[in-house]
Amino acid sequence: MAAVSTPRRAPLMRVNGISKTFGDVAACKDISFTLYPGEVIGIVGESGSGKSTLLNCLSARMKPDAGSIEYDTRRHGLIDILSLSEPERRMLMRTDWGIVHQNPRDGLRMNVSAGGNVGERPMAVGERHYGEIRANAEDWLSKVELDIARTDNKPTTFSGGMQQRLQIARNLVTKPRLVFMDEPTGGLDVSVQARLLDLLRGLVRELGIAAIVVTHDLAVVRLLADRLTVMWRGDVVEQGLTDQVLDDPHHPYTQLLVSSVLQV
Ligand SMILES: Nc1ncnc2c1ncn2[C@@H]1O[C@H](COP(=O)(O)OP(=O)(O)OP(=O)(O)O)[C@@H](O)[C@H]1O
């Protein structure tokens, strides 16, 4: 019988040999991986292991010393993001990418209403009909479980959890293909974290968005990530399917990380 071959999807992002040094500190050493459309990759590691540096390089906010990052854009196909000009990078950010910061204040405009925060991105990519932009913004506020009666309120009047949900709506409203998340539930109460994670997981799956999620919290990756990358002192020490890595860790650092969590 002839072998049935599964068609291989084209990668969304191909990361090859990324390194970044600050003085004597090698923050990231020769990091490579491939991300496929709709896939969620978690990057875990202790403080100072290089997670944020890697995320900053991948999202073109920091230039690595070596390596390449190719991304399959909707507009121009596969491009080397390190060669983008600043306006091109900003356009990619508006059309294809989202960034969810740990601190919602870094990702929101605090003096603009909640509806304005969500409506700004569709406007930035050319939508002009006020009624539709507002209706879409309200739809997204509902999706992230914010009361649409608060549409005209500024995020300064929201709780931390509400601000984080607003930041998620602002990022997802234009249906990006890739979202970078840096400790998306950090700094929130445990009960608020759990609800937010459920919401994020539902939205990412429903929209088929790929994501790269940096966290030191294994519960976050257990729930969100298909695959896991474990960093230790700038190196990737283990990579694999999330459940496999967490249930059967091979590297001593991963074993320590998993055993230090009572229950994930
Ligand atoms: N702008 C910078 N200048 C100098 N050193 C830096 C800079 N950014 C990061 N580093 C160093 O690079 C290493 C990796 O830092 P990074 O912030 O990427 O780690 P991290 O895993 O994200 O840590 P955390 O979980 O605490 O945010 C650390 O030793 C850090 O001190």
TrEMBL record:
It comes from the Bacteria. Pfam families: ABC_tran, oligo_HPY. One of its GO terms (biological process) is organic phosphonate catabolic process. InterPro entries: AAA+_ATPase, ABC_transporter-like_ATP-bd, ABC_transporter-like_CS, Oligopep_ABC_C, P-loop_NTPase, PhnK. GO terms for molecular function: ATP binding; ATP hydrolysis activity; lyase activity. It is found in: Cell inner membrane. GO terms for cellular component: plasma membrane. Keywords: ATP-binding, Lyase, Nucleotide-binding, Transport. SMART domains: AAA. It is a peripheral membrane protein. Residues 13-258 form the ABC transporter domain. Belongs to the ABC transporter superfamily. This is Phosphonate C-P lyase system protein PhnK. The lineage of its organism: Bacteria, Pseudomonadati, Pseudomonadota, Alphaproteobacteria, Hyphomicrobiales.
